[in-house]
Amino acid sequence: MMDDLRELYQEVILDHGKNPRNFRHPDDSNRQAKGENPMCGDRFMVYLTLKDGVIEDVAFQGRGCAISTASASMMTELVRGKTAAEAETLFATFHDLCTKDDDEQGDHGPVDEDSREKLMVMSGVRQFPVRVKCATLAWHAMNAALHGQDSASSDQF
Ligand code: FES
């Protein structure tokens, strides 16, 4: 069962890595922030179209490894249509999933089952600390854009 799940997760990551969703620059974006992985120099620009506190569109461009690209792609699907507060909850939850043991993870607000399942797919990187920066790269940029910053500080990674 665990092997089946791992295989499924790997397929999802490979699919998003090879065919990233929302890899574009929306014409009407009104927030953007750069995220750069200081370990390798890979970087993404994340674009948000934020209207009345809701993320109406989200996309990204840039260069990254398969894990960072897959995670960026999944991030865009997860936060589209969410309020800024909901997107922050997803970011904080995902960050904990990637960096903390189960009993150390905080409650950052409600996350529906479907979204949690998708966050779990990428959080397998917890076993490989060097890849955590890859998986969280676009998420940090998205969070910076939400806060009106133009880049995610590298010491956050
Ligand atoms: Fe550069 Fe993953 S190796 S972002």
TrEMBL record:
One of its GO terms (molecular function) is iron ion binding. One of its GO terms (biological process) is iron-sulfur cluster assembly. PANTHER family: IRON-SULFUR CLUSTER ASSEMBLY ENZYME NIFU HOMOLOG. Residues 17-37 are annotated as: Disordered. Belongs to the NifU family. Residues 17-34 have a biased composition (Basic and acidic residues). It comes from Azospirillum griseum. This is SUF system NifU family Fe-S cluster assembly protein. Residues 9-90 form the NIF system FeS cluster assembly NifU N-terminal domain.
